[in-house]
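Hi U.,

Before I forget, here's the chain from the pilot set. I'm dumping it here mostly so it's searchable later in email.
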Amino acid sequence: MRPTTAGLIAMVAGSTLWAQPPPSPTLLVLNKDDATLSIIDPTSGNTVGTVKTGDGPHELAVSADGKTAFASNYWGGAPGTSLSVIDLAARRERRVELAPFKAPHGLFVSEGKVYFTAEANSAIGSYDPVSGKVERVVTTGRGGAHMVLASADGTILFASNVSDDSVTIAERGVDKAARWRTTTVRTGRGPEGFDLSPDGRELWAAHSGDGGISIIDTAARKRTAKFDIGTKRSNRLKFTPDGRHILVSDLDAGDLVVIDAHTHAVTKRLPLGAEPEGVLIVPDRSRAYVAVSGEDHLAVVDLASFEVTGTVATGRGPDGMAWIK
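Structure:
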C-alpha cells in the first residue's frame, strides 16, 4: 500500500525530528527501570528524545566533545557485561561487550578513555572509543569496586570498594605505558558515593552502611578525618563547585543532606521523596538536580537557598545524569 500524502509528511517530519541535534544545554538522565536514556531540554523541562540502553543502566558519562554518551549496564536480573555507546545527534545506541568484566557501574571519561568499575571482578577497566579496545587497568583486590573518578590530569584513579570498606587509589607513572600502582585506604562501612574537592586535595567518601564520611588526603594517600552525618543510607556525594558545601543523597531517609565543608556540620536536611540517588550540579553553579528514583522525577535544588524549586519528569527509576553545554 502506498503511503498517503499525510503519511509521507509525518514520516519526513519524524525523520527530521530524529536527526535533530540535542538542545543546548542538554540534560541527560538514565532510567534504570525502563532501560532508557532521556534527552531533556532543561529550559522547558521537556523530554525531547529517548534512547534504549542495556538492562539496568546506572551511571552515565559524556565524551569531551559532548557528542557521545556512555551508560553502564549494571544489572538486569543478572550482572550486566556491556556499555551502551550513544550517538546523541542520531539518538542511536550501539552495545560494547565487556566480558569477562561483569556488573559495570561507575564511569568516568578522561583523556578520551572511558574508565569503568567492574563490581563483580573488583577491577577498574577502560574502553577506548577510537580503537574499540577494552582492557583491565587495575585489580583493586577488594570487594565491590563501585564508583570511579580520575584526577584532573588523568594520572590518578579513585574507586570506592563498597563491600570492603575502602577506597583504592591507582597512580600511573609519567610513562603512560607504565603499570598503575595502587594504595588502599580504609573508610567506614560501605563507601559508595564520593567526590574530589575542587582543588583535588581531598576525596570525601560517604558511607552507605554507618552514616559517616571519610576524608582522604589525596597526596598523602591516607584518611585524615571521619565523622558522622546521621544518614540512613548515603548514596551519592558531590562538592559544590566553590568547594564550600557537600551534597549527600540519603536513599532510605529520602533527604538531601547539605554539609559545610569547613566545619563538617550538617546545615540542612532537605526532604525530597522516595529514594533520592544521583546528584548533578550544573556548571553555572545555580542549581543541582537530584534523581528521586522512587518517584520518577528529578528534584531541582537552588544552590543559593538549598530549597527545591521544581521537578522534572523522567522515565522510571532515574539515577545517573550528565550535562552538556
